[in-house]
Amino acid sequence: MTDPHQGTHPRHGLDEVMHAPVRFSIVATLAAAEKAEFAFVRDTVEVSDSVLSRQVATLEKAGYVAVTKGYVGKRPRTWLALTPAGRATFTAHCQALRAIARDAG
To answer: What is the CA radius of gyration of the chain?
Structure first.
């Protein structure tokens, strides 16, 4: 017998952490590359440094994003990259979104 509390609607495949629009945009940007500089992600997603920092911290805590700090010459840099778990969750989240859109059409 099917558990009535465990539905089959594709929305159950959405990830709550990743679903927030800014976090989803960050992950989508990172999914296209091996890693990206903080400033590139900030400019692509069109948010401030502080907003990006907060959202990246949430994604990092969830295990979806790895943050690496270093230098280019004497200038400090921060790079962001999806973890394997982040990539897998992004793929599953996108599949759920497509299934929801397909069911609505």
So the answer is: 16
| H or E stretch covering 66 | strand 65-72
- The model's pLDDT over 78-100, given as tens digits with 9 standing for 90+, comes to 999 999 999 999 999 999 999 99
| CATH number of residue 23's parent domain | 1.10.10.10
Q: How much of the chain is helix, strand and coil, in % rounded to 5? A: 60, 15, 25
45-76 tens-digit pLDDT: 999 999 999 999 999 999 999 999 999 999 99
Q: How many domains does the chain have?
A: 1
Count each helix (H run) and each strand (E run) in the chain, helices first.
Answer: 5, 3
- How far apart (Å, rounded) are the C-alpha atoms in residues 98 and 103? 9
In the chain, which residue ranges form alpha helices assigned H by DSSP?
16-19, 21-31, 38-45, 49-61, 84-104
